[in-house]
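just leaving the lab so this will be short. what follows is a protein written twice so to speak, once as letters and once as structure tokens for the fold. can you read through it and tell me how you think this chain folds. anything you notice is useful, everything is just below:
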Amino acid sequence: MLGIILCGGQSSRMGSDKGLLVHEAKTWAQTAFEKLSAINIPIKFSVNEKQQNDYAKVFASDVLIVDNTALDIHGPLLGVLSAHLQNPDDDLFLLACDLPLMETNLLKELFALYQQSKKYEAYIFTNNKEQEPLCGIYTAAALKKITGLQQKNKLTRHSMKFILSQMIVCEITLLDNQKAYFRNFNAHADINGL
């Protein structure tokens, strides 16, 4: 298994790269890395071409996976499939960099479920019956299937929720006290009081 910290968003509403925002002397990408490191798996960072130089100043270049623009896909799926194509035999544990309130215990819970039951293609949380696709485990077999659809021009939509609709998914319902872990920050006003 390979951990993938998703940093490749445009951060257009934030106005600056979310993964490189600093909180408590660490970038959000570093914070996500530390939390996912608790599972003891190798971790890499998914970035787009424009971010590559900035991230190479913070992280070793060999842990950066740059979006494969030949895929002609947008959004998080581009980062996910770029990571899959570079590591086709690895199941991927995804964690978006802009979930700074995420708790390590929740990541461990998801990983434990994945280890116990191998009959699913993806393992994610649901929040008020809505899927949370950017903190989840996606098997190599499932991503190979999605890549196949993309290569045959049969991937009609590129949203992560659509991708999940093509997989056998194990869903864990978040408890009320866990929902805050998935609070997403998109603008500087959101960060006040963090």
User: Anything to note?
Assistant: The first strand starts at residue 2 and ends at 6.
